[in-house]
Write a structure and sequence with these properties.
Methyltransferase, Cobalt-precorrin-4 Transmethylase, Domain 2, Arc Repressor Mutant, subunit A, 4-stranded mixed β-sheet, flat, 6-stranded mixed β-sheet, alpha+beta, single chain, about 40% helix
Amino acid sequence: MTAQEIKERLKRGERIVLECKKAESELPKSFWETYSAFANTVGGLVLLGVEENRKEKDVAKRFTFTGVKNPGKIISDLWNTINSNKVSHNILRDEDVDSIEVDGVIIVYVSVPQADWRDKPIYLNENPYKGTFRRNNEGDYHCTQEEIKAMIRDSNADGNDGSLIELYDMRDIDLESLRQYRTEFRLENPDHVWNNDGDKEFLKKIGGYVEDRKSGKEGLTAAGLLMFGQGLPIRDRFANFRMDYIDFSNLIGDERYHDRLTYDGRWENNIYQFLRRALMKLTMDIPKPFKMEGVKRIDDTPQHKAVREAFTNAIIHADVFLEGGILRIEKHNDKLCLRNPGTLMLTIDQIYSGGVSRARNPRMQNMLRMIGFGENLGSGFQMILNAWSDAGWDDPQLNNRLDIDEVELVLPLRPKDISQTSQTSEKTSEKTSEKTSKKTSKKTSETILEIILENPRITVKELSQLTGLSVGGVRWNLDKLAEKGKLKRVGPDKGGYWEVINKE
């Protein structure tokens, strides 16, 4: 790390991944709390010999390089302490710690990586429940018992969904859900030997039922109950966990939502039924271009596959034991939002790069994979990115919401050229992007106007199919054309028509 790189980091003032400590002559005791916090969150940089004035609003004036008197001793004390029983695990490499001259003084930097899921929680003084910290915008804070338990669960190489749920057995299975799943399984795997097994034996083989030879106990696993269980037993055992689908698109008047799928007694509230019902609703408005393979029409597009992958990911990464956890799926005019309880177990870089797979619920992952969901192990997110890019839509956004223990994936349904979310730090890049955006947007608008001139009674859905835009993307363009006085709607949505006022 160079002096210039350090100055650039300070200019950004990224509080959640940056900590400055004066540390004039010794390693401060608070360093170890920050070490734990960074390791248990997303990593970060500690600068020793830099003083921060938090009252200063101007970031450029907030930091002062005070320097350290004996950098060699501070670094030596750090390594001696970290290799003792002070911390649960040393995740630093030699290149992560060093001293450097900045503005005539010597400072020490420590680059703390995010700990691997197998090593979390990183804690102090041999006590995870008193010595575990995480990071937020205010600095380091003591983790709650719930947060610590979640990290301990995540460190289990066998996953979270294989535990025996005592006193829950085949009587708690919704047989219709299991029958539907087995039908899908048979269609996907027509020659599989498991097709001949009874329900209980079948569940054993896919990870839904277990027999503990040591204790002699047997019953459903968490995966088996959540995937195929009856609603009442699920809510009895997993009262902390809910599933909710809400459609906020095409609202009329004072409507709070257009459609909702929640616990209302009209369906068995297991994950399998939620997936079947919510996925169909979620993808209903995604354009399906007319395509034939021989005599068979192909309706499945890369975008539909991407949404299935995203939905699957939300399920297999959900921390179903987290207090107040919600698997929440939302549909909006201009985006789809998929949220699952639990934070990311992999780093953002690992997810974007692909090649690494780690599911909280590996048995559910296998169950879904066996019927054609989530087959892109380690590359699923890249597939989502590619599908959205091919469609010309704005980039998906993956948000690790540490403050509420939730992961959110936003899939925009608006054309990339009209996106206001992409930003760049360089003014020249901003100008170039703006010019390109305007040019592309103009072309899209002109295409829509030309189509309407040919067929003034064309529907939004038909425009979506012809342009390749989402329904939300078409509506956005129509609204902008109306604002510019180039287009108006005559009559009601049904039975009315479009009038092009000014094509120039």
